[in-house]
Amino acid sequence: MSSAPKAAPTFSIEQRVPLASMTSWLVGGEAEYFAQPYTVEHLKEALLWARTNNQPVTILSGGTNVLISDQGVKGIVITLRKMAGAAVREENGRLHLDCLAGTSKSELLKNFLKYKLEPALFLAGLPGDVGGGVVMNAGVSEGFKPREFVEITDWVEVMRWSETKNDFEVVRLEAKELHWSYRHCEGWRPGIIVRAGLSWPLEPSADILQRVKQANQTRLTKQPLDMPSCGSVFVNPPGHASGRLIQESGLKGFTIGGAKVSEKHANFIVNFDQAKAIDIHRVIEHVKKTVKDQKGIELRTEVVYLGDWTGSAA
Ligand SMILES: Cc1cc2nc3c(=O)[nH]c(=O)nc-3n(C[C@H](O)[C@H](O)[C@H](O)COP(=O)(O)OP(=O)(O)OC[C@H]3O[C@@H](n4cnc5c(N)ncnc54)[C@H](O)[C@@H]3O)c2cc1C
After folding, report:
1. 65 CA distance to ligand 1 centroid (A)?
2. What's the average model confidence in pLDDT over 71-100?
3. 182-192: b (≥16 Cβ within 10 Å) or e
4. Is 302 considered catalytic here?
5. For 240-264, what is each residue's pLDDT tens digit?
6. Does 165 score more than 90 pLDDT?
7. CB–CB of 188/180 below 8 Å?
8. pTM given for the model
């Protein structure tokens, strides 16, 4: 398609863009249409284009928690990773970071570290962007304080369609209006998170850098960070650790095509040799079935499936 979408004269929408390199698993097909907004105004243009052209919208941010089908994604994929930047201010004894959704968590980490504040600890080694962090209520299981996005988020701004205005608008929602749970946040839909306001008390910890280094070291030791993955594939069922259940079911190293259950951390599935998304999906389904058969426990994926999965039987 020409770079001249009906409602977006200054903004290009591309066609048939490969998505694999935009995900941490390095798998998946093409986006039928694709846009990479740098600003909230660009995002609105892309959404208006989708609305005018009756195309479904799929949002991709850091791409570190998604499994994109080999068949690709119908409609328009909008990646937010360039819509980034954080305004930093000190106010009422707190450090405030007003972030565009595509701001990376490593950028947050840098800012919290500069002020020697505790959120740096759980953000250490946490990939992806702020928007994805809110949607997934990203965090760690260690006893850190804070350890999840819910604890550092004050508000989010969501771009959504307004029937009254007959236009897209940005609405601000206070974090306490949202429904936060383990690796999940609801209450902001419909729409797309465009900004988030994060804050933490300005109470520096002298040894935070040391502890961040330690946390990074622990990740390196326990996780297969040398191979493409999306981190933990399954959420932990109440009272259990998914990794342990998978390990005890004898699944470490279980392989289909180029995808396998990591030998280092059983809740990671790694792309060790040019895996296809379908390989990963089949490993996921096999793990679910085996754990259910052996342990009587249903595993639920943390990773979000995107795109066209019709006809992708395990
Ligand atoms: C090596 C590795 C280690 C990891 N370790 C952890 C960990 O310790 N703890 C943890 O919680 N996670 C971990 N993850 C998973 C992942 O990094 C987090 O879930 C992260 O918050 C996802 O952010 P993202 O920007 O990559 O989101 P994406 O993967 O791009 O998107 C995730 C979902 O959110 C939606 N979405 C993203 N941004 C927006 C937005 N602005 N508005 C609306 N919808 C949006 C997408 O459509 C998709 O459904 C790890 C991943 C890897 C690869």
Report:
1. 4
2. 97
3. ebebeebeebb
4. yes
5. 999 999 999 999 999 999 999 999 9
6. yes
7. no
8. 0.94
Rounded distance from Cα 134 to ligand 1 centre (Å): 9
pLDDT in tens, 20-61: 999 999 999 999 999 999 999 999 999 999 999 999 999 999
pLDDT digits (tens, 9 = 90+) for 113-161: 999 999 999 999 999 999 999 999 999 988 899 999 999 999 999 999 9
Query: Which residues form the domain of 125?
Result: 86-208
Site to substitute for ligand 1 among 21, 59, 122, 212, most atoms within 8 A of C-beta: 59
Work out the angle between the directed axes of helices 208-222 and 105-114 (0-180°, nearest 10): 150
Q: With respect to residue 47, please indicate whether it lies within any of the assigned structural domains.
A: yes
Q: What percent of the chain has pLDDT over 90?
A: 93
**Ligand 1 neighbour 102 (Cβ under 6 A):** no
CA angle at 56 for the pair 67 and 18, rounded to the nearest 5°: 45
Domain membership of residue 158 (yes or no) is yes
User: What is the residue type of 281?
Assistant: H
Strand 153-162 relative to strand 167-174: parallel, antiparallel, unpaired? antiparallel
- Among candidate residues 232, 242, 249, 262, the one labeled active-site is 232
Is 175 found in the same domain as 103? Answer: yes
CA of 105 to the centre of ligand 1 (A): 10
| Number of other residues whose CB lies within 10 A of the CB of residue 18 | 12
Cross-strand bridge partners of residue 91: 94
Look at residues 178, 208, 238 and tell me which one is the last residue of a structural domain.
Answer: 208
What residue owns the CA closest to ligand 1's atom 22? 132
Query: What's the gap in Å between 126 CA and the centre of ligand 1?
Result: 9
Tell me, yes or no, whether 152 and 38 share the same domain.
no
Residue 84's identity, in one-letter code, is A
